[in-house]
Amino acid sequence: MELTAELPAGLDPTTWQDFLRVAGTDGFDRWNDQVRRTGGCSDPIHLIGSTTTLDPATGQVLYSYDTSAEPGGRLRVACGNRRASRCPACAWTYAGDTYQLILSGLTGGKGVPETVTDHPRVFATLTAPSFGAVHNRPARGHCRCRTAHPDGAPELGTPLDPETYDYAGAVLWNNHASDLWRYITIYLPREIAARVGITQRELRERLRVSYGKVAEYQKRGAIHFHAVIRFDGPDGPDTPPPAWATAGLLADALRAAAARATVTVPAAGDEPVRVLHWGTQLDVQPIGAFGHGEELTEQAVASYVAKYATKAAETTGTVDRRIGELAELDKLPDLPAHTRRLIQACWDLDGIYPDRRLWAWAHMLGFRGHFSTKARRYSTTLGALRQARADYRANQERRERGLPDPDTDPEATTLVIAHWAYAGHGHTPGESWLAQQIHRDIAQTRDAARQARAEISEEEEW
């Protein structure tokens, strides 16, 4: 990036002056290298400390590093936040890991055999019930308000009549959504066994159900789940499922399990007994592979799940952090009225259902579950993917420093003594602006490389 004294459009003078200060320091090149290695992380973790690599047999120091020589005496590492609203750079890495996790469970790889492509699997979307009529864009005709809303209109998802909308029911449903999914995992094997005419014990000896899922917020602020569900043999993806275990059986049993799943919220205060359940809009589609004629491909499903793995309730206009006191809402003038009332409902219900911690999760509109979960045997894990990336980088550094490589010499061992301490996080205003430019440049280079690979692939197919 070319450095000029001219203030870039849209940048305030204070931030620009801070950037010029940072760019003029002696350690700027090293700072730039650190931030580039994080991908342009928005909120890097600052560490101070040292590491020493020794030959355990002789005690010889093979390599040493100390942060005292770094800019500000600190090493900056990526924050690892999955939320795109917090850190687009780290969210991109998280989305990529989620893509690989879901895809490996559909096509093999990362420890999953390629024969898994022959296992029946479906892509299911489970939604919340209605809490009142909202503005929408139906496939045919107009909204109930007799208006043809354009895509992205701010009123989409908001109630036609806010006074009759069940805000309490909406946040309580979000709060118990993970429990409803848990009942799906309980009832689904029962429904399969009943349809096949065997006991659940016999089912476990012949079949295993695996899944990977992600949560997403609808415009109305209600959580819904996208799930990849697959049939395996009794030992997981390494074994084929029985011939009678078809995608049709899976879809039919899933619909029955969803219909059975309920959570009862007891009466408390002025709130009546509520029986929470899934909505009627349950979409189940078989997943196919390229060349089989199906519209829903494995790559499309993995991309879809990865896309929503980095999003949270801020897509509805809420904040991406916890709210202290109710008075803080007055300091958020841009908060949509519908979202504000959902947060208010969390406050009103928190004292009635203290064990549900609704106010602690008000910024999530009551939802307190994990956004991305999977069955143990579905595929690899996010931890394994992160470890593989760390091992790759460690091997790179080992080669660059001329250290023994245990992969090529099993007897080559080293002893690493490290001392690290947390020293803060984040950027100054000027650093933050520069980190954004670094992330943008990396993203543009990445997109250009992806486009080039796609063009080469098309030429090869032609």
Write a short abstract of this structure.
By secondary structure, the protein is an alpha+beta fold. Helix content is 37%, strand content 15%.
Largest sheet at a glance? 5 strands, antiparallel
Widest β-sheet, arrangement of strands: 9-4-6-5-10
SSE succession: HHEEEHEHHEEHEEEHHEHEH
Overall shape: globular
Strand content is: 15-25%
Q: How many angstroms does the end-to-end distance come to?
A: 38 Å
Q: Let me know the number of strands.
A: 11
Question: In which range does the helix fraction lie?
Answer: 25-40%
Determine the mean pLDDT.
90
Which structural class is indicated by helix and strand composition? alpha+beta
Description:
With 462 residues, the chain is of the alpha+beta class. 37% of the residues lie in helices and 15% in strands. The chain has helices spanning 13-23, 28-37, 88-107, 167-196, 200-206, 247-260, 298-309, 337-350, 382-400, 429-461, and strands spanning 45-54, 61-66, 75-77, 121-126, 208-217, 223-232, 262-265, 274-277, 283-286, 372-374, 415-425. The strands form three sheets. A five-stranded antiparallel beta sheet has the order 9-4-6-5-10, with helices on both faces. Strands 1, 2, 3 and 11 form a four-stranded antiparallel beta sheet that branches. It has a two-stranded antiparallel sheet with strand order 7-8. The longest helix has 33 residues, at 429-461. The relative contact order is 0.17. This is Replication initiator protein. It holds the Pfam family RepSA.
